[in-house]
Amino acid sequence: MSERAKGEIEAILRRLYDVSPELDKLAADCERALRLNAEANGDYISSRTVQAFSEMNEAVRKLYSSAQTIVVRFGMTISI
Questions:
Q1: For residue 23, which phi and psi values (nearest 5 degrees)?
Q2: DSSP letter for each residue of 8-70
Q3: Full-model pTM
Q4: Mean pLDDT value of segment 10-26
Q5: In whole numbers, what is the pLDDT of the chain averaged over residues?
Q6: Is pLDDT at 75 greater than 50 in this prediction?
Q7: DSSP classification of residue 75
Q8: Buried b (16+ CB within 10 A) or exposed e, 9-45
Q9: Most buried pick, 10, 35, 54, 55, via CB within 10 A?
Q10: Angstrom distance (rounded) from CA 1 to CA 5
Q11: Which of 16, 62, 23, 53 is nearest to 35 (CA)?
């Protein structure tokens, strides 16, 4: 891998690391709202909102999975 590509990937991973606390909070909030909605038999939030929360939660999981794949594949670490 070229040094330029490695630098760009490291910069992306660093940015992900920087925002990860907020992403974790977003994912937890989505999961909590979905759980509360299930406990309320679907009366807590609309079906559209359920879908949006599910998609946001899945997007966070995919983002972390992609980052993990890069770290493993290229043996990279995040320098902070």
A1: -65, -40
A2: HHHHHHHHHHHHHHHHHHHHHHHHHHHHHHHHTTT-SS-HHHHHHHHHHHHHHHHHHHHHHHH
A3: 0.68
A4: 87
A5: 85
A6: yes
A7: T
A8: bbeebeebeeeeeeeeebbeebeebbeebeeeeeeee
A9: 10
A10: 7
A11: 53
